[in-house]
Amino acid sequence: MLIIMGLDAPRDRIEKVKAKIISFGCTPHEIPGSTKLAIGITGPTNILKEEEFRLLPSVQDVVRVTKKYKLVSRMMKQDDTIINVNGTSIGGKELLLIAGPCSVESKDQIFEIAGSLKELGIKFLRGGAYKPRSSPYAFQGLKEKGLEYLADVKKEFGLNIVTELLNTETIDAVSEVADIIQIGARNMQNFTLLEQAGKTGKPIMLKRGMSATIEDLLLSAEYIVSQNNYNIILCERGIRTFETATRNTLDLNAVPVLKKETHLPVIVDPSHGIGMWENVPNMAMASIAAGADGLMIEAHNSPEDALSDGYQSLKPKKLKTLLEKLRQLAPIMEREI
Ligand code: PEP
Ligand code: MN
């Protein structure tokens, strides 16, 4: 349920509404918009009576939220959520560009790619220190050493770091280095991890699980928001279908659907989505044309030597060509790069 009040509603009246919500064992969430103040309610809302709230002073409307997801829904908050990461706005007009290798492999490797990306004007460097691999025999990441190299590269180049959080044990170490914490596809429904990551207050990029519906993804985001952390970027990265010609099936339908259903920023990872570098640029363009707020692209200076996902990684030169094309597409989509 959603209580709508004017932005000029006096504080004591807002508190009165919140106290009433709490008295029913529910939780109020203040969500200020550009024209109205919404108070979202989670918990056993079926016991609430709409009329009782309508009678309270400064309450303009009471709306039942019929979707399973509540706080992340457009119904709760009509304005786009804009996340500020060290001065860069995510979810606004400017497109978010995250690039970098699948894994941090060595100090030289991450410094080399960071230098190339910095030259291209990219402000967000991705790289996994802890890697969730389908096979236990595959490279599992450099772990603490990888985080150390990410901290060093951040200091050297002033890039924002996006890196994956695999488990609750490493939450302090990862959140110390990460400007955006990545929750990977395999952990999208690790609800304890989502709650703990939410509690850090850090921006979180939540990747869609490979067999997750759009509703599942939004419900997972709801776990993070329930910790009062609205700094969430959703990432479409391809789903499993009967098709085997590509690594995954990049579900670009999800982009306009998500943009309609939620106020959270939505980006696309075409690298994991299609799994072959030569097709990544076209799928990246298609993602922006579909209305995405940004992209995450795997990039490597020598993909042939990469310890993970080299086949889907772009060399900086190819990434540069893609950026030139994206710069032409951006104004058509009323976006900026
Ligand atoms: C990754 O970004 O390298 C990754 C492991 O992604 P996903 O969780 O989408 O498979
Ligand atoms: Mn990868």
Q: How would you portray this structure in words?
A:
With 337 residues, the protein is an alpha/beta fold. The chain is elongated. It has an eight-stranded parallel barrel with strand order 7-8-9-10-11-12-13-14, surrounded by seven helices. The longest helix is centred in the C-terminal third of the chain and has 17 residues, at 316-332. The protein is built from eleven helices and 14 strands. It folds into two domains: 2-63, Phospho-2-dehydro-3-deoxyheptonate aldolase, domain 1 (Alpha-Beta Plaits, 2-Layer Sandwich); 83-333, Aldolase class I (TIM Barrel, Alpha-Beta Barrel), CATH 3.20.20.70. It binds phosphoenolpyruvate and manganese (II) ion. Phosphoenolpyruvate binds at residues 102, 128, 132, 184-186, 207, 237, 272. Manganese (II) ion (MN) binds next to loops.
